[in-house]
Automatic annotation (TrEMBL):
InterPro entries membership: PEGA
Signal peptide limits: none
Domain PEGA: 192-258, 261-327
Annotated keywords: Membrane, Transmembrane, Transmembrane helix
Keyword Transcription regulation: no
Keyword Transmembrane helix found: yes
Ranges that cross the membrane: 16-38
Protein name: PEGA domain-containing protein
Naturally occurring in which organism (per UniProt): Candidatus Fermentithermobacillus carboniphilus
Amino acid sequence: MGTVNETKRTRSFSGYLLAGVIAAVLGAGSFFLALNYFTYKRSLSEVIVARDISGSSLTAYRPKGPESFTNIPLAERVTVVDAAGKKLTLESLELGPGKEKVVKVRVRPDGKVVKIEELPSSFTATDEIRAVDGDSITLGDRRYAAGEALFLTSGKGQGRAGLTGLIGEGDMVRVLGHENTALLVEVVEKAGSLSFVSNVEGARVFADGTYRGKTPCTFRISPGTKDILVRAEGYKDLRLPVTVEPLKETKVTVTLERVTGTLKVTSNPSGAAIYVGGELKGRTPLTLNVPPGEYEVTAKLEGFYPKSAKVRIVQDREQFLSFTLAKAASGVPGGSIRNPGDVPGEKVIVERTWPNLGVLEVKDPRGSLLRLAISENVPLERLPFGRISWDRVMPGEELVIETDPEGNLKKATRIYAHSFSTEGKIMFREGNKIFVGEGWTECLLRDDAIVHSGTVDVPLETLSVGDTVAVYGASPQDIRFVDLEQTLGEKAAFEGFLVKTSTGLRIFSDYSLTWFTVPNNLQVADPVARVTDNPSRVPSGSRLRFYINPVGDVVWAEYVWKAGASLEGRVGLIAGASLHVMPGWQEVFISEKTSVFLDREKRPYYDVKVGDLVLAAGPSGDDIRFIWVEDRLLYVRTGTGFIGAKDPRGGRIFYELPSSGQGEPYPRLLDTKITFSYPAQRKNLSLRELSWGDKVKLFFDEEGRVVWGEVVEANEIKLLGHYLGTQDGFYYFTGFSRFTPGENIVVIGLSEGEKLTKGSRVFVGGKGNIINYLEVDNLVRPERWVLGTVLSVAKGSMRLSSGQTVQELKVSKDAWFCDWNAREDGDLLKLFPGDRVSVALGKEGTVLYVERGYSPPFKIEGSVTYAQGRVITVSGKNGTSTIVIDSGATVYRGGQKVGPWSIQKGDKVKASGSSKDSVDLVVSGW
């Protein structure tokens, strides 16, 4: 018995000794950890530009340090993590000249780097500098502070003593930075400059679609070949490629051509002086390039009566004008009637014939009308020889007649006979030019052309579109006689816009919607294409010239301009004179020339609003002349806020921000049928396509219904995960994603007095590295915290050793763990026996959230293939290892606490400790 008691005392003494040793070791460890913690707390963090790693130093630019790259010593062990918190090796950073990275480093008091962390908010951009303003630079549409940036040219530093002289507008640069701050600016290529002069002062110059100034102008621009557009009112656009070289000025002289039509003038006799608008332009035959418009043209020739005519010039088209001048009489007033016997052998023009009555009416060169009796024995000769009967003579043909002293016709010779004729409807008329028949035969009427309507002579001006005629002359360009066979009658003309509406085709005048109806069989003449269209084929919004009869019927129409652009839809965006029409988001431009109608009445050209349902039409998208606002959204107020997560009822929640800026967001359930415009991306989105955190603007009617929605700013972050906590002013979430809270961050889902707690499941929204929306999906509300060591974790449960007790705890489905030291987080199933944790428990003792403070360096899981005392061999998916279980280790087998030598071959174990030779926890059977 004594032996037994002695043994007990020895074991007891040994236990006390072991406990003392462990306490000493733990004390030393605590001191070591405390020292490390103290050192860690004294370490400094800074954002730098890392360029290279060479040996035991990091080459970097420190914004707070020298104005160049310097070497920073590296500690013996350096922790490297990427932007998501994942551990990396130093080699994987892949640094080098041209491959610099913006990183955050932690530097010990001895000046050595112990940690390098990639930043999710860092950026690299290569673009042209749009502006330099003080210590700021603008690239594209983003502005960056650059007061602390290091500037490089050809890889060499240029310092940071302000931006003047270092860079300028148009330079192509590579910029590295963090958030909205540029830290490294490398000049890739210096800008050149373009200098423009033109024959039109004030012509607008565009380079690659961007407005740069009015001629004469000079501007800096990045090198390369640029697409240049020069534009001026009343002149043709000029587009040309121009190559810009670095540090060189390229001078460009531009000659713009006026927008013109061609006027070709002839006269009989030729050599007449031609006046256009009272200004002498030359003598016939004459070809002029004239700006579009209406002009009065006058022909003057000494010894002849002057003649004038009005002509309309159309862009890029030819207009023909022919004058037949009458010789001025000597001593006899022009137009007086003379006896044909006074001028024997005189040339006359046939005006009308009555062969059955033996009467011939002619006009002499002085314009006098003569009626001659034709007897059967008076021959009618023809050139070059032969005779013809009098019934074959037509108006407009020319004769030489001889009369006796009493004025009787003795002889006649036909010296000119018509050799061309055609018939059909007059499709279009411009001055003396008419287009006849379905083939649109172009005919030019002489000023002295004879026009008969039955037995009546009618003026040349009587001929109008829609009339059916037969024309005769020497050629299509020399028409001398027109037989008006059928006419649409007296007509009045006005211009208007033909619009397709739900009730049929309607006409808008320049002032309002008219009451005129458009018959289905109406012919619409297209003088450019030389065809006729059915009204249903006319592009909606085209401008036509309509002809109406005395009772108000539209009997004919012709294009003034055909709509090359005819768009119908809601206006999604207005930017100056630019409109974007949904659903295709085509961009069109309006001006003071644009006629805008709201319902039936005309409005100012600028009275177009976002959300209007419009028809926009014009000769082109750059020249919209007509807008009909078919429907204007009737709303009484707007509200701005954020789209929340999906509602259980199938809709979406909109959290409206108070207009005063004070108070809580107000939730509204939205119907999923709402469509939103997204002006920034030029597209439409359904409510289902929106993400939580998208900032939108809604338009409400009197009953509070949403009549229009617009995406103000789309959420770029779209993070659904767990909140891990804050550090250094940053919010951390799943994956250790780090963000800066916005100045006006909106937090949804917290009641009054509640705070966002670690482990809570959240929806996060924002842009770049800034979050402006946070919606709590599941708030962790811990009742108490417990400390312990993880023994096992299974789905829905975990075992925790706390002191001398083992607790089996239920785990909530959203439970999450976080380890700030290792920058690791995830599902609780990733925890391993031996992890020391702090556990947040809910009301029923359910695990809500776990923070891991320590994780053993050595871990192994597998089956025991060899066991001898405290030495066992474990084989698992990561290989085979022989481990030594500490004599004081905690060992569980089959749910029971056993000695360190109790593990047997075939057991499945999880073991952890400081190393494979010092395992202090083994769990088997849980």
